[in-house]
Write a structure and sequence with these properties.
The protein is α/β, with parallel strands linked by helices. It is built from six helices and eleven strands. The chain has a seven-stranded mixed β-sheet with strand order 5-2-1-6-7-11-10, with helices on both faces. A two-stranded antiparallel ribbon has the order 3-4. It has a two-stranded parallel sheet with strand order 8-9. It starts with 8 loop residues before the first strand and ends in an 8-residue tail after the last helix. 50% of the residues are buried.
């Protein structure tokens, strides 16, 4: 199967405290397959990642959330960490982005604590998901069907538990984006 993502554009929605590996590894996997990848954030210039148990690298922001529209992208990636999704789920614009992507049918991939934003957007009801184990109750209360697996694919939704599962997460992400029939509007 052709997994080329040439011509595809993917948004990674992140806030300060995003888990560094969960931003870097999916971004590199998408770029390797030819996708264009934008880091979209509540911050305007840059954001600092969290690297396991301390502050990590600083990343340039490609698009401020106010200038990023779902129609411009083919897929959305929601990395985890605890601080990142906790900040995003408290921002109505970020909740709106997650809701818009889920309603569009375009691929959405969330890892670790990333599904918290989907809970806030009421976008996991009836969906099969996984996450970092501490989100099990939150996802179950949101009427999702949670399972302990390295990756779960439910239609356009890809979820994964955490950094140890990044290879499976990235493989599923690339597969789902490459098979997606929805495309962003031409710029």
């Amino acid at each position: 199967m052709n997994r080329s993502l040439k011509g595809r554009k993917v948004a990674i929605l992140a806030a300060p405290g995003v888990e560094q590996s969960e931003l870097i590894v999916p971004r590199e996997a998408l770029l390797r397959e030819g996708a264009t990848v934008d880091i979209v954030s509540l911050k305007r210039d840059s954001l600092r990642a969290w690297n396991h148990d301390d502050w990590g690298m600083t990343f340039e922001v490609d698009r401020h959330i106010d200038q990023a529209k779902e129609s411009e992208y083919d897929a959305l990636v929601l990395p985890g960490g605890v601080m990142n999704p906790d900040t995003l789920r408290m921002d109505h614009r970020a909740v709106g982005v997650a809701d818009s992507f889920m309603r569009s049918g375009k691929p959405v991939a969330a890892i670790c604590h990333g599904p918290w934003l989907l809970v806030e957007a009421d976008a996991v009801r009836g969906r099969n998901v996984t996450s970092y184990p501490s989100l099990r109750t939150d996802l179950s209360n949101a009427k999702a069907h949670w399972t302990d697996a390295e990756v779960v694919v439910d239609g356009n939704l890809v979820t994964s538990r955490g950094p140890d599962d990044l290879p499976a997460f990235c493989n599923a992400l690339v597969d789902v984006v490459s098979r997606s029939k929805t495309h962003a509007a031409a710029e």
